[in-house]
């Protein structure tokens, strides 16, 4: 990488906990207003650098093949790249012809880069014209709950996207935290005590798997 070319970028980037910025966009399934998109569902909004490129083809094929798992988690997919809807349609048809896999979710044609800029997907030291590989997990209240940014040359990990989505949902439903490498069915972390009284109670609790009062796990259900 030519470090002399680096510029310091000082853009406002979306952050975890922010309301997802609203936008109107043209997609492969018609126009959408994001605030009205997939009401009462979680949304995984993800960008790819360009249609008809190899890593992106593997990634969108991965999203398409595992769409049923996102459906099962009450989650709608929404792709994006800075390409025209015509390019998207040509690529969708090409992949379907070559592999039999249909990209069965809307892909935003963000040719004016409006959405990419709103979501910090344009990272000029990586590319001035193409979005990086971003993933935004957005909850049913349209709040951003998790952000991943990957560079051009490194594909994402679908297991990790599904794992973190499920972890957020479990954390919300049961008011627990999830440890390193947690996956569905593993023990969960109960919130640490906040007072001496709670700490004493925790020390006496025989139902939990405890390392110490501040690190205690339990089975869900
Ligand atoms: C790819 O998807 O293979 C790719 C796209 C843009 C830049 C580098 C790689």
Which features does this protein show?
alpha+beta; Glutaredoxin; 2 domains; binds benzoic acid; Antioxidant, Horf6, Chain A, domain 2; 6 helices; five-stranded mixed sheet; 221 residues
Report on the architecture of this protein.
Helix content is 29%, strand content 21%. By secondary structure, the chain is of the alpha+beta class. It has two domains: 7-158, Glutaredoxin (3-Layer(aba) Sandwich), CATH 3.40.30.10; 175-221, Antioxidant, Horf6, Chain A, domain 2, CATH 3.30.1020.10. Strands 5-4-3-6-7 form a five-stranded mixed β-sheet. Strand 4, helix 3 and strand 5 (107-109) form a beta-alpha-beta unit. The radius of gyration is 20 Å and the shape is elongated. The mean pLDDT is 95.
Total domains? 2
How is the main sheet built?
Answer: 5 strands, mixed
- CATH topology label of the largest domain: Glutaredoxin
Q: CATH homologous superfamily of the largest domain - what is it? A: Glutaredoxin
Rg: 20 Å
Sheet-strand content, in percent, reads 15-25%
In spatial order, strands of the major sheet run 5-4-3-6-7
Low-pLDDT residue spans: none
> Helix/strand-derived class?
alpha+beta
Bound molecules: benzoic acid
Could you give the count of β-strands? 10
- Choose one word for the global shape: elongated
Average the pLDDT over all residues and give the rounded result.
Answer: 95
* Helix proportion: 25-40%
Distance from first to last alpha carbon: 50 Å
Number of helices: 6
CATH class identity of the largest domain: Alpha Beta
The CATH architecture assignment of the largest domain turns out to be 3-Layer(aba) Sandwich
The SSE order reads EEEHHEHEHEEHEHEE
């Amino acid at each position: 990488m030519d470090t002399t070319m680096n510029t310091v970028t000082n853009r406002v980037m979306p952050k975890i906990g922010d309301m997802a910025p609203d936008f109107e966009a043209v997609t492969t399934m018609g126009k959408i207003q994001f605030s009205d998109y997939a009401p009462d569902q979680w949304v995984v909004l993800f960008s790819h650098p360009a249609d008809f490129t190899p890593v992106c083809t593997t990634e969108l094929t991965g999203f398409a093949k595992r769409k049923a798992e996102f459906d099962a988690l009450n989650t709608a997919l929404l792709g994006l790249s800075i390409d025209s809807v015509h390019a998207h349609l040509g690529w969708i048809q090409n992949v379907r012809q070559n592999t039999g896999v249909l990209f069965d979710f809307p892909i935003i044609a963000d040719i004016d880069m409006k959405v990419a800029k709103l979501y910090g997907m344009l990272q000029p030291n990586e590319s001035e014209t193409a979005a990086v590989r971003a993933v935004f997990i957005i909850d049913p209240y349209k709040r951003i709950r998790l952000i991943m940014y990957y560079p051009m040359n490194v594909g994402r990990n679908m297991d990790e996207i599904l794992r973190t989505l499920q972890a957020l949902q479990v954390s919300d439903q049961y008011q627990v935290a999830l440890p390193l490498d947690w996956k569905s069915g593993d023990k969960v972390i109960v919130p640490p005590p906040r007072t001496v009284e709670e700490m004493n109670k925790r020390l006496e609790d025989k139902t939990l798997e405890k390392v110490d009062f501040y690190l205690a796990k339990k089975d869900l259900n």
